Amino acid sequence: MVAAVKWQKLEERCLRCNDCGLASSRTQVVFGSGSLVSRIMLVGEAPGFNEDRKGKPFCGRAGAVLDELLSTINLDRRQVYITNVVKCRPPGNRDPMPEELVACSPYLQEQIELLQPEVIACLGRFSLRTILRFFGLSPEVSLSQVHGQVFTPEGDLFQTVQIVALFHPAVATYRPEAMDGLKKDFAVLAKI
Ligand code: URA
Known about the structure:
- This protein is α/β, with parallel strands linked by helices.
- Helix content is about 40%, strand content about 10%.
- It is built from eight helices and six strands, in the order αββααβαβααββαα.
- It has helices spanning about 5-15, 50-55, 60-70, 100-115, 125-135, 145, 170-175, 180-190, and strands at about 35, 40-45, 80-85, 120-125, 150, 160-165.
- It has a six-stranded mixed beta sheet with strand order 1-3-2-4-6-5, sandwiched between helices.
- α1 runs antiparallel to α4 (about 100-115).
- The longest helix has 18 residues, at about 100-115.
- The chain is globular and about 40 Å long.
- The N and C termini lie far apart (about 30 Å).
- The structure holds uracil (URA).
């Protein structure tokens, strides 16, 4: 099967998903968007209000911050692939629950297998812990201690993947002074 067809089939399956309770409260599934041949994958936490309405990741205020951060390293969202750990909005934007993370993980895993990114930028702690676990690394990390760091899983399978720990862009929507730190951490993406 060619890659485009595999992507389409995965998205269709995801759009019909009923594997956790979020299916009953969502307006729509937010599968992901961007370049299907990018070497860079950005993984956020879960759709918010705007994403749930529009079906696109990071299209609200956090998305505007993300666009600004990408522009500081001369990237725009069409050049990267953006998705979330959880594809449906948790009611009231609460944190995703463990069973929701488990139910949704296979979609993210298949997206990674299809894209084969060289760099995975984890936006926020849920994303970082999920991705570290996928690649056999300990998820027991504190984002405030490891933000801006690059993790390189060992083993033949993962030779080319670099995992970057980043604060979630939403931080800057309620703490604008966090923007400088976010920009510094995003500069790591440009470097690698
Ligand atoms: N926050 C996220 O983690 N993902 C989105 O798509 C929007 C806001």
